[in-house]
UniProtKB/TrEMBL annotation:
The keyword Zinc does not apply. This is Aspartate racemase. Pfam families: Asp_Glu_race (PF01177). PROSITE patterns: ASP_GLU_RACEMASE_1 (PS00923), ASP_GLU_RACEMASE_2 (PS00924). Belongs to the aspartate/glutamate racemases family.
Length: 233
């Protein structure tokens, strides 16, 4: 069993899913009382919000360094947006980071899709770090048009899903944003924020939906069991 270091708390609600799903995945393979060997470094999400995601490098890097000192075999950033720093952090540590964007790209390629819609935080949708990872696999990424849509998604993720609050009207909004992307040619939808699958999922759509949390967890579990090498930044 390889030891996994989880940088969590971004937010704690999605970190719960990571911990649960990784342990379930290991147990499904090994049975009995087997679970994952892992260490969770749970950041205070309020500290991230105070400085803003674009200024949160030091907080996330220090968490990674602490996990390295615990002799983990791989590091997981339990948030899509945190991968803003994945390449830079990877260049400074020897422990591999299992990258959520690359794992997602490989799943999209399995479906032979070339254009997908992305729903995530404002930073994940507007900045290049996520889209560029998909572009490396010849996948075009589109996001909802207009600042109002972006702001609405960000507000729901931050002020509702990040607190474990699920609202029917918010679910309807997300379905509407996704359908708008389909009208613009999206062949699939990426749920590119670890909290979004709490609200919508494959059952809400007639085209492929890529739950990045579960995709990421699958790669993490396979690495922990020695089935796969990690996909690094």
């Amino acid at each position: 069993m390889k030891k996994i270091g989880l940088v969590g708390g971004i937010s704690w609600t999605s970190t719960l899913d990571y911990y649960k799903l990784i342990n379930q995945g290991v147990n499904e393979q090994l049975g009995g009382l087997n679970g994952a060997e892992c260490i969770v470094y749970s950041l205070n999400f309020s500290d991230i919000q105070k400085v803003g995601w674009t200024n949160a490098y030091d907080l996330i890097f220090e968490a990674c360094k602490s996990l390295v000192l615990c002799k983990v075999d791989a590091i997981v950033l339990c948030a899509n947006t945190a991968h803003l720093f994945a390449d830079e952090i990877q260049s400074k540590i020897q422990v591999p980071i299992i990258h959520i964007g690359e794992a997602t790209a490989l799943e999209i390629k399995k479906e032979k899709l070339s254009k997908v819609g992305l729903l995530g935080t404002k930073f994940t949708m507007e900045m290049d770090f996520y889209r560029n990872k998909l572009k490396a696999y010849d996948i075009e990424t589109i996001v909802p048009a207009g600042s109002d849509a972006i702001a609405s998604i960000q507000d729901i993720v931050k002020n509702e899903l990040g607190k474990g609050i699920l609202r029917t009207e918010s679910k309807e909004k997300f379905i509407g944003y996704a359908n708008g992307l389909v009208k613009r040619g999206a062949e699939g939808i990426i749920l590119g924020c670890t909290e979004i699958p709490m609200l919508v999922g494959q059952d809400d759509f007639n085209l492929p939906v890529f739950d990045t949390t579960r995709i990421h967890v699958d790669r993490i579990t396979r690495f922990a069991l020695g089935i796969d090498e990690p996909f690094v930044a």
